[in-house]
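PT: before anyone asks, these are the final sequences, not the draft ones from last week. 678 residues across everything. Please model them as a single complex and drop the result in this thread when it's through.
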Amino acid sequence: MVTIADVARHAGVAASTVSYVLSGKRTISTDTRERVQRSVHALGYRPNASARALASQRSNVLALVIPLRTGMHVPVMMQFATAVVTTARRFDHDVLLLTADEGPDGLERVAQSSLVDALVVMDVELHDERVPVLRELPMPSVLIGYPDDADGLTCIDLDFVAAGAHCVDHLADLGHRSLALLGTPSAVYERQTGFAQRTLTGFVEAAERRGVLGVETPCEHTFDAILHTVEQLLSDHPDITGLVVQNEPIIGPLLDVLRRLGRRVPEDMSLVAICADDVAERQVPQLSSVSIPAERIGDQAVESLITKLEGGEVPSLTLVPPTLTARGSTCPHGDLTTA
Amino acid sequence: MVTIADVARHAGVAASTVSYVLSGKRTISTDTRERVQRSVHALGYRPNASARALASQRSNVLALVIPLRTGMHVPVMMQFATAVVTTARRFDHDVLLLTADEGPDGLERVAQSSLVDALVVMDVELHDERVPVLRELPMPSVLIGYPDDADGLTCIDLDFVAAGAHCVDHLADLGHRSLALLGTPSAVYERQTGFAQRTLTGFVEAAERRGVLGVETPCEHTFDAILHTVEQLLSDHPDITGLVVQNEPIIGPLLDVLRRLGRRVPEDMSLVAICADDVAERQVPQLSSVSIPAERIGDQAVESLITKLEGGEVPSLTLVPPTLTARGSTCPHGDLTTA
DNA sequence: AAGGGGTGTCGAAGCGCTTCGACTGGGGTA
DNA sequence: TACCCCAGTCGAAGCGCTTCGACACCCCTT
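LR: through. Structure below.
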């Protein structure tokens, strides 16, 4: 392995000069700088990451905590992860992958051993046991999702309350008077997952505000469960004509179930999904949907983190406003002129 | 931050003694050892990862390279990744996440800067540009998947040739004489992806060996593409009664398409999938399938890597034998007694 | 009683880098 | 001409750990 001393010797300068050329932290004459750069190239020098981290107290590594909990939609998680890695690289940082199995202790471990110098934590629950740990940690962190009490934290999330409300408004605008929310598996609600909880809140509040019926039910991922849930729903509330789905994996089977039950989409049943755009566009018919801007949120998370690392200020809570794209799965219902 | 010197002072010993207590590399008297351990606890000492890495020339970090290529099935990738992280932690290692965007340069970067001390590379193509780089790198690596020329490498993969053959054998044993392989999107074949290529080979060879018709076609992920592909297939070969699917995302829509086309599964059409068990069990009917043992392969990859790090020998190519589980999507065809 | 072999501990020398203070010399100012 | 300042460079001191060689001491052996 070639060291900074080798480069210095090759270029005929001191090691510290090489360091300053590389970091740009002191002015170096053009002549010297170019000579050093040529030596770096010629020798194929790569600074040793550990030595650098030890001396500078900066590892240039971010931790990314991905809890692979049951009921979470994996492709969306990966979109976040990819965005985080890509953006981190843009700021010359690498990403250490932590899974949830390690729990709060894992966070302490990587933080206190200086393995990383900041953390991105995904899929935060309303009462998350990692939150108090993050508050105490001697390094910055950013949460994707947010707990009940976001004080002293930096959180970024899609505004799921608004997302739920948008779906209701869209359907109500089209004249639908009876709506249902087909939610996530009940395990997700039971562990007080923010996004599920908040979508539900937005849905219920908007339904009330618009004076329409808004019923909600969790829904598991198996075909049988979907079939049963929908049958139950339609027998309890036969007048339902608008469905909101926040549960990406069930979208395919759900369309199938509706077909089986003889409900055409959108003629008999309008459908709005909260899912990635490409998923919505892949269905037949294409789905009206509120998209989940995973890439944007992941980017934003890393940018905030870097800002904090550099001593800057960032807002405690950033809510990304949702956008609804109308496609082929929703259509007007009833006599709009009387509405 | 509390350092090893603080612990040494607190325990009334030399820093090196603390180090030896922690690493166990020299014998320490029970008395001293316990005193040191108490001090470690009392002060909440965590060794600094960079300092340790610098002094010992070992970062205790593995790189995991996940190429998120188009057409790959993300949940399966994540299963691999999770297994890798979990097993790495078992061996006291952490995992640095690299995406494919970085390409071969990324491998060199993390390796030559001593950021990691070994690499796990996923989704290897037959002619993979990362392979020559890996061969030259001054540190061990393990590939999940394997290139044409696996010499000097360590590769682990499901035996996809056998997987393809198993599917054919299963269907042929049931009396089916005309089979089709519904493959991955054509992009996957075009970039010479090992697992797709090899499944195809196994399928074709087995069909020949069994003297049955075996046609194959790529298949994209959209509903329309699936519908069109299957219609074309059945109009070209109306006598097909057995389908092999190696393309997890299309399984749901495919069942739907077959229903639309009036082909009952398994009465009119037997179906074998190559997919994760939980996906197979979630369908109606449950699918006969060859499972993808992601966890086992991920584990194995890390174990081999650790063995190599410790100077041990591991086989160049480990092929995990596939197992086929018969479920409700396949049934006998024709008069078996005459076969 | 002298010698030998463990065992347990210490001190010091790095690992490869960053960073601080100090030094040099040339150009501008008075 | 004397002075000062600044740009440009160097040397040395760490960063916190591991590891090597040395050494002290005790228990056996002869």
